[in-house]
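Morning!

This is the sequence you dropped in the shared folder:
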Amino acid sequence: MDRILTDCQGIMKDFPAATIEQLGRVPDEMLKRLAAAGLFGLTIPEAYGGAGLNLWEYMHTVERMAGYDLSAALVSLAHLSIGTKGIVLFGTDQQKERYLPAAARGQMIFSYALTEPKIGSDAKHIETTAVLGEDGEHYLLHGRKTYITNANYAGGLTVFAQMDPKRPGRLGAFIVETA
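The structure's back. Tokens below.
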């Protein structure tokens, strides 16, 4: 944990907050260096290439990083706390093997897509629907999302949709790879 924190703090010093503010996003080079330092794998289990930090260690690290640059700390926080959390806790072995190593290396930063233009973040009433495709294996998602956390950096999205429009609140979470 200390090595990751020290490395990340050194990287953040190379990218002044004014630079990030002017760009309106965390620079790609900064994200690459933070990924190489291990920032995007803090809570991902060691079996999948992460550091496997517990909640206290993770929050301590993010808090210290936020003192240097809140924007970069928040990219990691969203990626790990809401973007990949569902995969870590509830993903199949196949999903974990496919997505978590790339997520831990920062090659696939995850986003969280719940909020909708008309509904906001009221999960029970979202309008996006998921319909099982004709192949019986894949779902088709229909709807619109807004305010997607980490959208600028996303290689993968956790997208929420109604599974049965006649029974609001029966949600599914879907892993969607971005182009």
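Headline: Strands lie at 109-113, 129-132, 139-142, 154-162, 171-177.

More detail when I'm at my desk.
O.
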